[in-house]
Amino acid sequence: MERNLKLRLSDLKNSLFFQVLYVLMEAPLPPRESGRFVVEHSQDVFVEEEGVRRVAEMLYALRKSEELTASGWKKANPLAPSPTSDHALNWVFVVDTMNFSFWPDREEQQCEVTYRGTTYCGYMTLCAAITRAMEEGIPITEPSYFSQMSVEELGRVLRSDNNTPMPMLEERHRVLTEAGRVLLQHGGSFRSFISPAGSDAQKMVELIVDNLPSYRDEATYKGKRISLYKRAQILVADFWGIMEARVEGDMPNLDFLTMFADYRVPQALVHLGALRYSDTLMETLRNGELLSSGDRREVEIRGCSIWCVERIKAHLWSLVEERDGQSCNINSAIIDFYLWPYAKQHHKEMAHIPIHHTRCIYY
């Protein structure tokens, strides 16, 4: 009887149910290690070392420009409040909490927001709408307000200037009010919420994903739990950008952050020859197939993008050390801050490279 019991326990451990349960209980790999794991097993997305070296050379030529510094944060987004403003930190929290899924169902039906004479689309519509609301006297950066605002009130804040509304309004309302309630439980501001992590980038990311469910950008790939944490990492990077501009404190382990895996930067990496899609995947994307969050191909695009930027950074660091005889402080977050506007500026040249489409709250 004892032998039979042991056999039944062995069968249970080998069962699909047990394997799935184990994966769900397993802590996910951090984003950098996730990127490496995905690259090692990828079927449709590949990092091209020759292209990686070319991008590193391009960045080396720009290594002393403001574009590759934290001080370029405000320049990259002129709609953000001054870093010294009392609203700056809560502004980035509100924007980063709703920073997902701006692509239109049809290219000719873009959501647009006009602010101070300039019309914006994509992610910048959100920035423009939040800054516009502040000018209109709506306390949109106050957790006491946005934690309990109605979906109709948020709809008015995010209103479009044409007949195309911002996508996923109800999801944006859910994650914003949820995040506001969390801030109220931790001192009532993003600064008080994040302060227990000190100046540790890794602890900041962990604090965010532990307390804010909408930031848990995770997946299962080839039987392994992985994390991508696009919004959590960009929130920490935005916090760092503000604190650097204020000359307040230092974040010595900022290199924990990877690039922020979305749908625009991968397109730029393919355009630059650092990333390659299989013919099958390229055809799938050109046909406009919607990829679900967690789909193998979607995970490969994002995971390989993370590792691609890590390789670019490694080559850049080597170039600076070999040619300049000094260490390099350009990290993955700064490289992402450069590549995202680069993609926007060169969108016509890259139009033949399709972006992948995934409707989700993670990016």
Walkthrough of the structure:
This protein is mainly alpha-helical. It has one domain. It contains 17 helices and six strands. The strands form three sheets. The protein has a two-stranded antiparallel sheet with strand order 1-6. A two-stranded antiparallel ribbon has the order 2-3. Strands 4-5 form a two-stranded antiparallel ribbon. It is globular and about 50 Å long.
The fraction of residues assigned to DSSP E strands is 5-15%
| Count of separate structural domains | 1
Report the C-alpha radius of gyration, rounded. Answer: 21 Å
What is the helical fraction, as a range of percent?
Answer: 40-55%
State the end-to-end CA separation: 54 Å
Q: What structural class do you assign from the helix and strand content? A: mainly alpha
Q: What sequence of helices (H) and strands (E) makes up the elements? A: HHHEHHHEEHHHHHHEEHHEHHH
Taken from the alpha-carbon principal axes, the silhouette is: globular
Order of strands, widest sheet? 1-6
How do the strands and helices of this protein lay out in sequence?
Layout: H1 2-14, H2 16-25, H3 31-41, E1 45-47, H4 49-61, H5 72-76, H6 88-97, E2 112-115, E3 118-121, H7 123-135, H8 143-146, H9 151-157, H10 169-184, H11 190-194, H12 201-211, E4 218-221, E5 224-227, H13 230-246, H14 264-271, E6 275-277, H15 279-286, H16 296-324, H17 332-345
Antiparallel strand pairs: 1-6, 2-3, 4-5
Helix pairs in contact: 3-16, 4-16, 6-13, 12-13, 14-17
